[in-house]
Inverse folding.
């Protein structure tokens, strides 16, 4: 295994045991390397120490538990391997600058830790995707809290312009659709000197005072979409999975279903997750 693959394997181990106490010795035993080598590899590949990675991931997952359930703070603290509630509260405050009790009573956007996945740089060979699943999906009129870029028309350029913390902040907010989205905006939604590509979260309600600095709200009407879902893929093959689906979308004609493409609504990109396949929602309207 390459050092990148070793670290990816450790990330999987951490994710599977996140509610346990995970030590450097545990990672060393799992990977069959010395604790010193594990620490060095982790830092070299991900630019973060194993302990910081585990701490941030534990706290972010616990924050989602506080957001989505009525579980007591003491139960969450022990469930995620903390020895005391005080220790958990101090760690939570240092990470998010809010006490967990206050956060559970008054949910607001915080910057969750989104684990970075790195893959070896090598030519990606992916078996041809034979199946793209297409379905019609309705989305009601809604508001979207977005962060604009400058010139970006894709994820990589957008990340270079605004940084990688945006997705973590968006992930801390509740959405009726369960996750943040990436959007290609139609002209009418693009402000001067801002990007066509943005990231955002579709929401039912929000407190204007708690919109994070640098974010703003747009309103989208009720719209009909074609949901294109590719086959599951290996995580390192995400770029090929995206390109393959794009080719399928280009070749598809919605007229066979009595629709045409709707250029007045944004195209939606969901996070590429190998186990579910790559997904995009393309707006359509009746002919």
């Amino acid at each position: 295994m390459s050092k990148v693959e070793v670290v990816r394997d450790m990330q999987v181990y951490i994710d599977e045991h996140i509610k346990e106490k995970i030590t450097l010795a545990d990672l060393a035993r799992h990977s069959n390397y010395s604790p010193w080598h594990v620490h060095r590899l982790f830092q070299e590949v991900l630019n973060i120490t194993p302990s910081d990675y585990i701490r941030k991931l534990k706290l972010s997952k616990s924050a989602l538990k506080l957001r989505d359930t009525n579980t007591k703070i003491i139960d969450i603290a022990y469930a995620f391997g903390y020895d005391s509630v005080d220790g958990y509260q101090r760690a939570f405050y240092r990470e998010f600058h809010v006490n967990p009790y206050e956060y559970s009573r008054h949910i607001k956007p915080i910057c969750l830790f989104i684990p970075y996945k790195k893959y070896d740089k090598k030519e990606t060979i992916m078996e041809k995707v034979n199946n793209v699943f297409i379905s019609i999906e309705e989305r009601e009129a809604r508001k979207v809290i977005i962060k604009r870029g400058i010139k970006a028309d894709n994820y990589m350029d957008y990340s270079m312009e605004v940084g990688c913390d945006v997705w973590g902040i968006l992930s801390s907010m509740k959405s009726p659709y369960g996750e943040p989205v990436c959007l290609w905006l139609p002209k009418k939604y693009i402000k001067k000197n801002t990007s066509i590509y943005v990231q955002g979260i579709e929401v039912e309600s929000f407190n204007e005072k708690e919109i994070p600095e640098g974010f703003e709200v747009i309103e989208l009407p009720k719209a009909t979409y074609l949901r294109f879902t590719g086959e599951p893929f290996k995580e390192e093959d995400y770029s090929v999975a995206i390109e393959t689906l794009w080719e399928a979308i280009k070749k598809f004609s919605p007229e066979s279903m009595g629709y045409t493409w709707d250029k007045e609504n944004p195209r939606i990109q969901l996070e590429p997750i190998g186990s579910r396949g790559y997904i995009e929602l393309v707006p359509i309207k009746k002919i």
Summary: Strands lie at 132-139, 142-147, 181-184, 197-203, 216-220, 223-230, 259-261, 267-269, 279-286. The two ends are 54 Å apart (CA to CA). The domain at 132-286 is CATH 3.20.80.10 (Multidrug-efflux Transporter 1 Regulator Bmrr; Chain A). The chain has two domains: 3-105, 132-286.
